[in-house]
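User: I'm putting together a teaching handout on how multi-component assemblies are represented. Below are the sequence lines for each component of a complex, exactly as they appear in our records. Could you produce the 3D structure of the whole assembly as structure tokens, so the students can see both representations side by side? Please keep the chain order the same as the input.
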Amino acid sequence: KNEVEQSPQNLTAQEGEFITINCSYSVGISALHWLQQHPGGGIVSLFMLSSGKKKHGRLIATINIQEKHSSLHITASHPRDSAVYICAVSDTDKLIFGTGTRLQVFP
Amino acid sequence: DAGITQSPRHKVTETGTPVTLRCHQTENHRYMYWYRQDPGHGLRLIHYSYGVKDTDKGEVSDGYSVSRSKTEDFLLTLESATSSQTSVYFCAISGGQGDREQYFGPGTRLTVT
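Assistant: Of course. Below is the structure of the complete assembly, with chains in the same order as your input.
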């Protein structure tokens, strides 16, 4: 069993829909990271959080340390949000990655 | 964007040849990482460095070596490339341990024929 599990693996949505991507982990962590990777592109850090909730534009990330679970929400989704979203957790100086959620948003 | 570059960006090489990938940063960050990304596996850590001449192995280090002789450069060497090392390689940097953000380079696509 992977230490970091994401769901769903693939997600399609219509423009404007509210999207949720989930991440569960089984190890102790100091922080959880959400990353974005566009097709053929590099990897960008969206959020790093260790408690509560963070918001940046239309993106919201939450974490529940007790339940070892995090969610990434996208409000008013847009085709440019189409990408792979990766959850990663860290304990000391290394990250452990999930396999990613591929999101496609259609106009 | 964090100042991090990788070279080369694309490389095709034959089985058995040595290959060196370079990661260069201008951020003076202490930590540098090499990952490989393969379908179905996500990103996996190969080696990382926590300072000049200080390196450690990751989960998939077999067949790879690294060197860091100065803060800004982290080299990944495949001593004798194999087809199983065909992958996309990403370098990342961080100012601290796991509770700091990591910034990723653009990636190097390596094909071993």
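A couple of points students might notice: The first strand of chain A starts at residue 4 and ends at 7. The radius of gyration of chain A is 13 Å.
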